[in-house]
Amino acid sequence: MNQFRVFTRWRPLASSDGPQTEIKWKCEEHANARMSMSLVPSGPNSRPWKSEAAFTQVFEASDNNQSVFDAVVAPTLPEVLKGHCSNFFAYGHSGSGKSHTIMGYDFNNPHEFGMCLAAAHHLFGKLEALNEGNSEAALQLGIGLRMYELRNKTAFDLLNGRCNCHIREGYDGQTHIRGETEVLENGKVRVRPIIIKACWSFDDLRRELLAGLVLRATGTSTVHDQSSRTHAVVELEIVTRALLDTRNAVIERQSELVPVAKRATDIYLEENLKDYQIDQARIDVAEAQKAEFEASVKEAEDHVEKIMRSSRHRCLGGMLVFVDLAGSEYYHDKATPSVPRPKQSAQEQQEGRQINTDLLSLKEVIRAKARKQAGIPFRSSPLTMVLRGHFMGSSTVNSHSTMILTVSPSSEQFAATMNTLKYGNLIGLAGSDKKAAR
Can you identify the CATH homologous superfamily of domain 5-429? Predict the structure, then answer.
């Protein structure tokens, strides 16, 4: 099951907006408990617009981060504590408040924590209670933190010096984010996945999160001088040392398999390229050794599953995923070509094409899931590829997804704000499984 909700958050008018008038807007609640929004034109190049009943809630400029967390994230935490996954996306043009909402800027005031830090603070309170009376260190519950950003078609591990990572689809059909290949002793080849930092206290997690944020790439855009030119992803997973150790064992077994599998392939090719009789016995010996190492990997993978199934806590593996999407000022609405747009530099145009592809792909994935299509276009962009597992969950794990539209009240940003709301309108309709075929 996958539920999708859409919220809208208006930010206050900032001093950097200049002497601009504010956009006039209003919302209306409908019988289905969803809300529609309408914009009043603010200039000769703008025109009125009204959404359908697609939004779950609208936050005004006076609502702080605590209010947003209480309405958006807090209701999903009981599901996370049952081992389920919840995804949160912040979508909007640069400078509209996405990073403020997801990450926050005040890391010492709980009322102004971004959603990811506030969620971690709440979860640690719950995990401390669950850990009481459990003296076995390997089974103590904590939070595993992964933090990376996507730029163009590459991932960067923000908890490992922003190292370059590769996005690959594995033999299991799952998408994996892998670091550089390491050649070890005895021909072992290890491809490390993106790092998980195990945090056993809230202060540990806050420290790691801040260290990662320092490495996040920003750039100058036509809208914002510290624009996020990447999609930043923060994953919080409930883990134990035992679970992390068994996952590391899988990586080690895989590294042992690589040279053995390569040797088996080389021997097979050598024998089949011969002009004389093939030494089938040599091939069989190599294949048998390969099968032995494959069985060892399977055994390690089964041990991971056993740890998950045998845990006395349902919350193990529960996950929160927060995605601070890159600025959407490049999202072009072909239906309104007359809406003025900022002039873009050549670099912005290049980055914008990939950002646009990612954001459109995300919309199509959500709509395809709402239509219950057999084929969902996860492969259409790197962003949707890495989010595939979070969207799909598993046969036993549900996934709940939420999008927060962040919008500016500045009349100068009328077109960008309208485009953000149009995007959210489509997402909201798809998420409610109504008019999703539009």
Answer: Kinesin motor domain (3.40.850.10)
